[in-house]
Design brief:
633 residues, alpha/beta, Alpha-Beta Plaits, TIM Barrel, 3 domains, eight-stranded mixed barrel, five-stranded mixed sheet, rod-shaped, binds ligand C2E, binds calcium ion
Length: 633
């Protein structure tokens, strides 16, 4: 109640913004008001001078005293109005900002105006004229300038009171009842107008403040990443465009960095999403404050950041990024990968340039231990090839560019080295690019979710080849086929295999299904169901690449495989490494105890074969027995 009254009377200070808005709009009113006063007073002074000279011509008494007597009010108001005019104009233009002085001047100016109004109002009245001079000035002071209600009401009451008292003294023209009522009504109206003006201004100021806040918020959202508070991609593009223009005008280049924090998923997994978000925020601020304080860092997506710097600063910046992550990663092994693209083509889009940096960062996966890679010509070629693969996969399948190469699998346990199977490996025999190995197209097709086109084509060719061999009476051995995790999402693998084996009349026991260990990490139930159906269909299930990635023995417990295919990493570390031999031995024993057949990949020497034979590994595969090759017709 008390508060609301205080607010209505304007006795409470509004927010700084509203106070500033209030003063500013009063200064705008003051420009008009003082401008009019200046014009009026100049006119009055000119009239006075005319009557001075006319009077002189008529021989009336005219001297300096006469001028001062009749003109000092005009000069006073003119001087104050001039000061007010120039000060308010400068204030409005932002050249001066002293709010106290502005308000002080406004008070002085208004008091002089009212005093002038009272003086000439009383004089006109006593001269038999109306009270318009006073009314005009009250209108100016209380109707154009917004005062806090308490000052407005007290000020208006005082002005009217003094005016009324002075009028009452002019005895030769007694005030009529009508004039009294008019003055009273004017006083009330002036108060109401002044109070309502104040409230309007404050409301407008508050509205303006909200709008301003909303604008600032919008601008913040557009230029900042919501999660981490560093720049948004929008802000980043703007900053890079400017930095690039600056660099080019100096004949320099600019380095764009794509920063990827590998294995961040594990962090989320271990500490939860909230901690993961907090970590990203912390990292982002670390990049911004410690590594790129002068430039903008932005978050491109999830755990990917982008930044830019001068090319000669790249090594330091990458070192800084790695340090920031290392300091904060806790117990999780996080690897920082930075791809760098040096911009020198002014016509290239920033997104294209960033994409190049991203490609360079992704390629670090193939070079464990490295943190930094530059995008170069080699990348350009491979990204062109990638695009080619995407555009032509269907055509390649149709035109027979996709071919099956076979690699022999031999008996190891018996030590005979006799052919017991073959692995079907895809090749893309391109009319312009020549023979492409799987790494040139498998990952791309997986990313495009089009790996099924290739795999179905391979399955059909293998069945066709087997049919031909059977028809020709040649000896056949089972063929193992590679499947991606995505195959199981993209089509019904068990149904398709069954369909093909029926179409070409190939017994299911001639077709084996290889699934890599990394495919088993998600959509567990779905995969289990598919595997059960494959087994029902009579297809053997092989676990491929065992031991290559984040191996988990759980896989052996949770899934039922017929053959365990041991990755070649163990043999690569074989020479002079006792551990590798111990591990291989243990894996073979474990697999046997679980009822699985063992196959070791990547055998390249007789020594390796002898060792595998010694530990009882069932089968072997590798260059030692034969590289993947086209089927002998
Ligand atoms: P993978 O299934 O592990 O295939 C074995 C790879 O090791 C083959 O590479 C083979 O040429 C190579 N290799 C075999 N013996 C040796 C050896 O003694 N030493 C060395 N250094 N390497 C050996 P390739 O043919 O380049 O295939 C690479 C990968 O591409 C395959 O790995 C498989 O994951 C994928 N892939 C191949 N064909 C297909 C396919 O038809 N469908 C799908 N989805 N993936 C395929
Ligand atoms: Ca394989
Ligand atoms: Ca393998």
């Amino acid at each position: 109640m008390k508060e609301s009254l205080a607010r209505r009377l304007g006795m409470q200070r509004s927010s700084d913004y509203v106070e500033r808005f209030y003063t500013r709009s009063n200064m705008l009113s003051a420009i008009y008001m003082s401008g009019i006063c200046v014009a009026l007073e100049i006119w009055m002074i000119l009239s006075l001078l005319t009557s001075y000279f006319e009077g002189m011509a008529l021989g009336k008494e005219r001297n300096l005293m006469w001028l001062v007597k009749h003109g000092w009010w005009y000069v006073l108001l003119l001087s104050v109005a001039l000061i007010m005019f120039f000060y308010s104009l400068r204030f409005w233009r932002g050249k001066v900002r002293n709010e106290r002085l502005a308000n002080g001047l406004l008070w002085v100016f208004s008091i002089v105006c009212i005093a002038f109004g009272i003086h000439y109002g009383v004089n006109s009245y006593s001269g038999g004229e109306q009270v318009l001079a006073f009314v005009t000035m009250s209108l100016f002071v209380f109707g154009m300038i917004a005062w806090k209600p308490i000052f407005a009401v007290v000020g208006a009451t005082l002005s009217f009171g003094i005016f009324y008292a002075l009028l009452a003294q002019v005895t030769d023209i007694p005030m009529t009842y009508g004039t009294q009522v008019n003055l009273f009504t004017l006083w009330i109206s002036t108060c109401v107008v002044a109070v309502s003006l104040h409230h309007q201004r404050v409301a407008q100021g508050m509205f303006d403040e909200n709008l301003q806040e909303a604008n600032m918020r919008l601008r913040y959202v557009a230029t900042h990443d919501e999660l981490t508070g560093v720049g948004s991609m929008h802000a980043f593009r703007g900053a890079v465009t400017m930095a690039l223009e600056n660099a080019q005008s100096r004949g320099e280049k600019l380095a764009l960095l794509f920063i990827d924090i590998e294995n961040f998923k594990s962090y989320n997994h271990r500490y939860g999403f909230a901690a993961g978000d907090e970590f990203l925020r912390d990292i982002a601020q670390g990049f911004h404050n410690e590594v790129f304080p002068e430039e903008i860092v932005a978050r491109a997506s999830d755990d990917h950041f982008v930044a830019y710097c001068a090319p000669e600063r790249v090594a330091d910046a990458v070192g800084g990024c790695c340090y920031v992550v290392r300091e904060r990663r806790g117990e999780i092994r996080l690897h920082t990968r930075v791809g760098v693209y040096i911009c020198d083509d002014p016509d290239q889009s920033i997104d294209q340039a960033l994409n190049c940096a991203r490609i360079a960062a992704n390629s670090i996966k193939l070079h464990p231990g490295e943190h930094l890679r530059y995008y170069d010509e080699q990348f350009k070629k491979s990204s062109e090839l990638r695009q080619y693969v995407i555009n032509n996969v269907e055509r390649a399948a149709k035109e027979g560019w996709i071919r099956v190469f076979y690699q022999p699998v031999v008996d190891c346990k018996g030590g005979t080295g006799k052919l017991v199977g073959r692995e079907a490996l895809a090749r893309w025999d391109d009319p312009t690019h020549g023979l492409l190995p799987p790494y040139a197209f498998i990952e791309t097709l997986e990313q495009q979710r089009e790996i099924d086109i290739l795999d179905r084509c391979i399955i059909e060719q293998v069945c066709r080849d087997l049919r031909e061999d059977l028809d020709a009476g040649r000896e056949v051995v089972p063929v193992s086929l590679n499947f991606s995790r995505l195959d199981f999402e993209l089509y019904n693998v068990p149904a398709f295999l069954k369909q093909m084996s029926e179409k070409y009349d190939v017994p299911a026991n001639l077709l084996d299904v290889e699934i890599t260990e990394s495919a088993l990490t998600d959509q567990f139930d779905e995969l289990q169901a598919n595997m059960a159906r494959l087994r029902e269909g009579g297809f053997a299930l092989w676990l491929d690449d065992f031991g290559s990635g984040y191996s988990s023995l759980n896989v052996l417990k949770d899934f039922d495989f017929d053959v365990l295919k041991i990755d070649m990493v163990f043999l690569r570390r074989f020479e002079g490494n006792q551990d590798a031999r111990v591990i291989l031995n243990a894996i073979v024993e474990l697999a046997h105890s679980l009822g699985m057949v063992t196959l070791c990949e990547g055998v390249e020497t007789q020594e390796q074969f002898d060792f595998l034979h010694g530990i009882g590994c069932d089968k072997a595969q590798g260059y030692y027995f034969g590289k993947p090759a086209p089927r002998a017709a």
